[in-house]
């Protein structure tokens, strides 16, 4: 029963990361001038081609959403290590994004959303790392 509660906790935390990334993107679209940049084919000073959009879709949404599902369905050992590795990766990924955003635009919502995602990704890695997985069929 304790493992199920932890799996649910991890799934909810992964959903939090996905929602935070969604909110960040949505709020970015409201910033004056951003829609004009997107129409011109740029996102944050980068060319908004299919490659960039695919990377954004995978990193911002797909991985956290898939991890939410996998947190409930993977065997315990695999779940634990996937959550540790991807949780640590997301701490670094979002921290890098935060540093890049703060040095260029410094919108308060970016700092709030990215800081929240970093804390939650760290919690994912921490909870998964501390998880005592039974050796039997896990």
What share of the residues lie within helices?
over 70%
Q: In total, how many domains does the architecture comprise?
A: 1
Strand arrangement in the largest pleated sheet = 1-2
Mean pLDDT: 90
| Assembly of the depicted chains | single chain
Instruction: Work out the strand percent.
Output: under 5%
Largest sheet: 2 strands, antiparallel
Poorly predicted ranges (pLDDT <50, ≥5 residues)?
none
Number of strands: 2
Helical/strand content category: mainly alpha
Helix and strand string, N-terminal first?
A: HHEEHHH
Distance between the termini: 14 Å
Radius of gyration: 17 Å
Q: What global shape is seen?
A: elongated
Helical run tally: 5
Description:
With 138 residues, the chain is mainly alpha-helical. It has one domain (2-130). Helices cover 80% and strands 3% of the residues. A two-stranded antiparallel sheet has the order 1-2. Helix 1 packs antiparallel against helix 3 (50-73) and helix 3 (50-73) packs antiparallel against helix 4 (76-104). The radius of gyration is 17 Å and the shape is elongated. The mean pLDDT is 90.
Top keywords for this entry?
2 strands, mainly alpha, two-stranded antiparallel sheet, 138 residues
What's the short version?
The chain is mainly alpha-helical and 138 residues long. 80% of the residues lie in helices and 3% in strands.
SSE inventory with pairings:
Elements (H helix, E strand, L loop, with lengths): L1 H29 L3 H6 L2 E2 L2 E2 L2 H24 L2 H29 L3 H23 L8
Antiparallel strand pairs: 1-2
Helix pairs in contact: 1-3, 1-5, 3-4, 4-5
């Amino acid at each position: 029963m304790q493992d199920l509660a932890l799996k649910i906790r991890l799934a909810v935390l992964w959903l939090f990361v996905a929602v935070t990334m969604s909110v960040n993107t949505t709020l970015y679209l409201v910033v004056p001038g951003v829609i004009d940049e997107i129409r011109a084919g740029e996102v944050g000073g980068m060319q908004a081609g299919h490659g960039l959009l695919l990377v954004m879709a995978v990193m911002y949404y797909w991985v956290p959403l898939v991890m939410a599902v996998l947190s409930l369905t993977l065997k315990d050992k695999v779940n634990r290590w996937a959550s540790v590795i991807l949780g640590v990766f997301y701490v670094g990924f979002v921290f890098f994004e935060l540093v890049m955003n703060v040095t260029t635009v410094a919108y308060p919502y970016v700092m709030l959303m990215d800081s929240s995602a970093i804390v939650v990704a760290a919690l994912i890695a921490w909870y998964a790392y501390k998880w005592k997985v039974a050796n039997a069929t896990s």
